[in-house]
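Hey,

The postdoc asked me to send both predictions to you directly instead of through the lab channel. I've kept everything plain text so nothing gets mangled by the mail client. Protein one:
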Amino acid sequence: MAEIVVIGAGLSGTLMAYELVPQLRKGDHLTLIGEDPSFHFVPSNPWVAIGWRKPADIKIDLTQIVQRKKISFITSGAKRIHPSEKRIEIEGGGELHYDYLVIATGPELAFDEIPGFGPGHFTQSVCHVDHATKAYDAFEKFCAAPGPIVVGAVQGASCFGPAYEFALILDTELKRRGLRDRVPMTFVTPEPYIGHLGLDGVGDTKTVLESELRERHIKWITNARVKAVTDGAVEIEEIAEAGTVAKTHQLPFAYAMMIPGFRGVGAVRGIDKLTNPRGFIVVDQYQRNPAYPEIFAVGVCVAIAPVGATPVPVGVPKTGFMIESMVTATAENIGAVLRGKNVSHQPTWNAVCLADFGDGGVAFVAQPQIPPRNVNWSAKGAWVHLAKVAFEKYFLRKVRRGESEPFYERFLMNKLNIKKLKQSA
């Protein structure tokens, strides 16, 4: 019988473990490795950072849930993977051997690549619930003595939605507190234009997001490379098409939140033929590593080539539904291999996203996420905020119940022709 291991207990890893359970044969064993017992709903972190949610509202203890599903749970994290030996070193000592491995670690946040950058220095983050909690404490202090705000992302980032969300919900919250007129705001991004999102736009996101920033009196700098951060200022180079420095900026701030660049985690970074130079897992169309076919990968840790050349490095986001399509394909493929069959399931990488602005938002559908697309649609309205609140509650309920895709969700998405798996040729 087979030992299957999933590394990572975030969105992709938790769903991966849930979807693998029905694929197991009698006697197969599944282990989930996380860094702590808790799952937290990352899309709600911007709300935590301004006090609209408490950390406890978006955290779930997975211990009893996975125990009920007969999944072994290690909460000390993976230290290093040794693919040629099919062995995993565990943080704090010990090791685990596997027959099949799914890497779902998410990224390592590369704050150290820019001097003075990150929660340990002068800027805030919403990439983890603990960062968002610290960002909220800093925001409350800021509101007692308002000043300029800088929000955005730095070179190498591949998750731009939360940066736009945070800028716009900050605008909403500051208006509610009667402070907006005392707070100049600037949005800083490596994207070549507003609304690029690492995807060369989706529908008319360029016009929609530019319009939102203008209406809310938020200035912006694109093609931005952050050189350093000091206590109260961000040093930025604005890069021209040819790669030369077109302009420099010294932006003052009393509060700053910027999404960092991503890289692969230390457990896998630098493993020949498993990862790319940035440490992301190389996979084929079946989510399987070509050099080590017993290893699969899903989620943000997967290597995806940029959509096109840009003056400043811009990564490709791995959005929620896109990740779920990776998970479903991987579960089906591992189930096939366990039964002596060939892998055949390919994810669609379709994307369905809701970006909340506090008093509205923008939604988009991209099929597939990487262009060219069969569907390329975006729209905005107050309904998006309500939809995101409803989705948060629905997703947390799924995790608590130990479900990945209830039948009614599958029915609805099929009716909308938004599928997780490509149709067989």
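Protein two:
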Amino acid sequence: MSYVIPSHPAPDGTPNGDPPPGSRRGGRWSRTVRRLAAAVALATGAALAGPGTAGASAAGPTEARAAAALERVTSFGANPGALNMYVYRPATLPANAPVVVALHGCTQSAQVYSDNSGLNTLADRHGFLVVYAETTTVNNANKCFNWFQPGDTRRGGGEAASIRQMVAHAATAHGVDTGRVQITGLSAGGAMTSVMLAAYPDVFAAGAVVAGIPYGCGTDVVSAFGCMSPGMDRTPAVWAQAVRDAHPGFAGPWPRVAIWHGDNDATVAPRNADELRDQWTAVHGLGQTPDRTSTVGPNSTRRSEFLAADDGASVVEVNRVPGIGHGTPVDPGSGAEQCGATGTQHFIDSICSSYWITRFFGLDGTTAPEPPVDPPTEPAACWTANNYEHVRAGRATTTGGQVYAKGSGRHLGLYNTFVTHTLKESPAGHYVLADGSCP
């Protein structure tokens, strides 16, 4: 069975508690449903993992790396989601250190994410604890976090509650600063990062979603496929309400959110970055037009920032990584902005996303909002594709079989692979028809 709901979920990370209504399962009908869900979850996991070695670096041979020393924590609470907990503690960890929770992608493990993401390098450099949560084939046949199962995505139950309990254990065992708790993850781990930011906004100060999906998009294994590709087009208000409903009555402050997505992701459609942007800018009461744009890193990743009205801090940012597919962008090397390894699939030689994520979290000593690296006007980007691909990539939306450019609303024709147009993006997320006028 690829998915189970534990029988004793604990509310809000407490060691004891009753399951929410309807969470207990039994009987012939229940067993039949679970068997069907197991089969479909297997397919979902395979789709999230991607075919073959997609996402592996093409830059060179696999690096020979020594595995990082992770500490297995066998008891950290009731653990209703049946997850494993590992900790990376730098040799020098100051009192009241920050903590980053890291969630691996499908088919991966805590050790794989530890060895390749580059987070440990940054933890050594800046003195923060890394908690690696790990799911197993008991929960999901392809070791995906169950971001689409209601029993695992609600506050107080399932996998979400287990991750919350890991944070509580880290505070007790390592004395970390509970006001500086961050979370990040890839793919299914990125989607689960969205879950944690929505269900526990009182726990996480910030999060970074890598190739992930907005909270509240998938509620079962069937809808999960649509969330992944072509993605769901909802209004910012609807997306934001899903977050608010995850913890009714919470008045803020809401977590800051960084979004990372490869332009060529064929597993989780790039339009999910736009929907995540819409969700979290609306939660923060902001518009969807960026206040500041720039390019960062060796590959000119396009960054859009949305700033708080009171102090000008970046509360939501979108990082669009050019030329890569589905995976965590890394940049192997010993330079100041380099980190990670490409020793396994879904870690792509591009830009050290963990460096920039750590910077966004404020863990590198930066206290003031950083200025744009480039002038605040992002150069226009042009995209030529058929209408189906424009919708899939998030450059257009579809209604009643017709396609419309996102931002401008320009009608592009039928939703199919036979009609081709060129769209120009300027500013980020705003597309206009540019047939014949783009270089």
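Summary for protein two, as requested: The mean pLDDT is 84.

Thanks,
C.
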